[in-house]
């Protein structure tokens, strides 16, 4: 199986050759993750995030020749997206908002299980629920795309394991295994610096 970097280089090569299917794969493969990235940095304004991501992806296409592969394609797209976010705030004549609780509160030390238990248990009001979702979404930015996707589908959109399996063309058992690895990666990402990680 090709390495992810090889897959990305091949995708860009196909796009530069004008292959329509490659453009669809490019948008489908990056929109959701880039949307999460923008949403957390735009005060959770869904309309603004969608607009910014569409602009970033459209602007990325003519700039593809400048992508040299030193960074992943997603990291490169994040740079373009940051520029679009800055332009958005300039148009609004406002200041960027802190993009999440990950950097600014003790919520960063909570494990994924604790966050999910709070959501599933129905013991939090809507304000706190939105804050928890923001923590999750901000952290998902930094996880491998497949982990971020399955965690979002399972714990934010509420898809069942069977529904996720159908979506990615895999077996429920494989999805359970993927979710286990994704939860572990999330737990590592939100563990306090110097903590035990447990």
Overview of this protein structure:
This protein has 198 residues and is an all-alpha fold. It has 2 domains: 4-92, Rna Polymerase Sigma Factor, Chain: A; 106-190, Winged helix-like DNA-binding domain superfamily/Winged helix DNA-binding domain (Arc Repressor Mutant, subunit A). Helix content is 67%, strand content 0%. The chain contains 9 helices and no strands. The protein has helices spanning 4-16, 20-41, 46-60, 73-92, 112-120, 126-140, 145-156, 161-168, 172-190. Helix 1 (4-16) crosses helix 2 (20-41). It is globular and about 45 Å long. It starts with a helix and ends in an 8-residue tail after the last helix.
Low-confidence stretches: 98-110, 193-198
Rounded mean pLDDT score: 75
Straight-line N-to-C gap: 33 Å
**Broad shape:** globular
CATH fold assignment of the largest domain: Rna Polymerase Sigma Factor, Chain: A
Strand count, sense and barrel status of the largest sheet are: none
Kindly name the structural category. mainly alpha
The number of domains: 2
Which CATH top level class of the largest domain fits?
Mainly Alpha
Order of helices and strands: HHHHHHHHH
Which percent range describes the beta-strand content?
Answer: under 5%
- CATH architecture classification of the largest domain: Orthogonal Bundle
Q: Any idea what the CATH superfamily of the largest domain is called?
A: RNA polymerase sigma factor, region 2, helix turn helix motif
Name the helicity range: 55-70%
What is the count of helical runs? Answer: 9
Number of strands: 0
CA gyration radius, whole angstroms: 18 Å
């Amino acid at each position: 199986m090709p390495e992810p970097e090889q897959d990305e280089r091949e995708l860009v090569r196909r796009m530069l050759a004008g292959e329509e299917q490659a453009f669809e794969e490019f948008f489908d493969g990056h929109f959701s993750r880039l949307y999460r990235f923008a949403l957390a940095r735009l005060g959770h304004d869904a309309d603004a995030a969608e607009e910014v991501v569409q602009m970033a992806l459209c602007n990325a296409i003519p700039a593809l020749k400048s992508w040299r592969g030193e960074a992943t394609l997603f990291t490169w797209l994040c740079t373009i997206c940051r520029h679009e976010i800055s332009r958005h705030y300039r148009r609004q004549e406002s200041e960027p908002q802190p993009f999440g609780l990950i950097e600014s509160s003790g919520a960063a030390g909570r494990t994924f299980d604790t966050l999910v238990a709070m959501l599933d248990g129905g013991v939090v009001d809507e304000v706190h629920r939105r804050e928890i979702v923001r923590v999750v979404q901000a952290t998902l930015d930094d996880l491998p795309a497949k982990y971020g996707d399955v965690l979002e589908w399972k714990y934010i959109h509420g898809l069942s394991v069977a529904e996720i399996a159908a979506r990615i063309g895999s077996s429920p058992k494989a999805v359970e295994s993927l979710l286990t690895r994704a939860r572990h990666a999330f737990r590592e990402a939100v563990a306090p610096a110097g903590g035990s990680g447990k």
